[in-house]
Amino acid sequence: MFADLLRHRDFRWLTVGRTVSLIGNGMAPIALAFAVLDLTGSAADLGVVVAGRSLATVVVLLAGGVIADRLPRAAVLQGSSIAAGITQALVASLVLTGSASVPLLVVLSAVNGALSAVFSPASSALTPQTVPADSLRAANAATRITVNLAMIVGGSVAGGLVVVIGPGWCIGVDAVTFALAAFCYTRVRVPMPAREPSHVVADLREGWAEFTGRTWLWVIVAQFLFVNAVNAGGIQVLGPAIADATFGRAGWGLALAAETVGALAGGFVAARFQPRRALLLGVSLVLLEAVPLVTLAVAPGTVAMMVALALTGFTMEQAGVAWDISLQENIPADRLARVYSYDAVGSFVAMPLGQIVAGPAAVAFGARPVLLVGAVVVVVATVAALCSRSVRTVRTGTPASHA
After folding, report:
1. Diameter of the chain measured on Cα atoms
2. What angle do CA 343, 179, 258 make, to 5 degrees?
3. CA–CA separation, 396 vs 24, rounded Å?
4. Which residues contact 324 (CB under 8 A, 6 or more apart)?
5. Per-residue pLDDT for the chain (403 aa), expressed as one digit of tens each?
6. Matching CATH number, 2-393, of 1.10.10.10, 1.20.1250.20, 1.10.8.60, 2.30.110.10
7. What is the pTM of this model?
């Protein structure tokens, strides 16, 4: 499967670029988390820094979708990667020289988040342009597999490096990988989808009409508004703090790497097994997102968290591949980036709130109750999504319902 896909030059260079940059990105969140904890020792401060990135991503995403539908998408990837490399180099220099402060890290994280918001819609919408239509499902699965391999390498390396040489050098490696990725994107040469010239506001309205015209689409996005907010606070903020106080930083790096190993295995399965109602299966499996939250609350430990995160990594990959195929098969190519941006805004808009609230809530009520309540929210949001007939009846491989 993968060898056949790599014969397509544009897909090959796009894949290499993503893989290189994501190895660095697998290291950066772990390194940044422990850099903040070394600086202040506060989970609340970590939440503010992480939330700065998430908030900027949400604010810029709609503009990112319009940019990706108006400009050559490979050029968008090049420019955003170069700028992100510069941003990460600044973060690394601040950490390594002892000049870092929470306000500075918040600002630089926000800039990096804004650049991610420009990169993400262009990257997602570019994949269908790099392979024939009959290879699209395999291309999506292969893309997710390579992404997960890169994150495994990055997460595993970061867990050791933050102990041996400190978090600053990990962030510095991320800066270098962005530069290498930008070079790879110069080799991707695909035509822009044909579209009529229009005003930016008209572009946004057109994307909104596509987004709201399918009930299954906005219902699932609403589901992930809650799921992502809970995970942002529970896993990204409370997770490193609990690990630091119990089973250690290296153990947390291994747990995150195990999640990516699970996702890698899930990608191989998704490439070969895609039932007609794959979206229904994927949405149902989101129930298992509650498992790491409960484990972190009642039995935090390296092995327990590795198992819990590996399980959810595997199951979420089924949901991810089904979601990508459902969008790409049903949204016109010249509007796809804008729909991806509306999807991302809806899914991620509550993440900064989850990240900011998690630390103070854990101080006020205790980390265990906060994590257990979060697990309940995940279950309730998923069951509510499954109550929608539109979600239950979407099929892949055939045109989806617009109901």
Report:
1. 57
2. 60
3. 33
4. 124, 140
5. 566 777 788 888 998 898 888 777 777 777 888 888 888 877 778 778 877 887 888 788 777 777 877 788 888 899 989 998 999 899 999 988 888 888 888 898 889 888 888 888 888 778 888 888 777 777 877 787 787 777 777 776 776 777 777 788 888 888 888 899 999 999 988 776 655 556 667 777 777 887 877 888 889 888 988 998 898 888 888 888 888 888 887 888 788 878 878 887 887 787 776 677 777 888 888 999 999 999 999 988 889 999 999 998 888 888 887 787 777 777 777 777 777 778 877 777 777 778 788 888 988 898 899 999 999 999 999 999 999 888 888 776 654 343 3
6. 1.20.1250.20
7. 0.64
Q: Residue 355 is encoded by which pair of tokens?
A: 């990240």
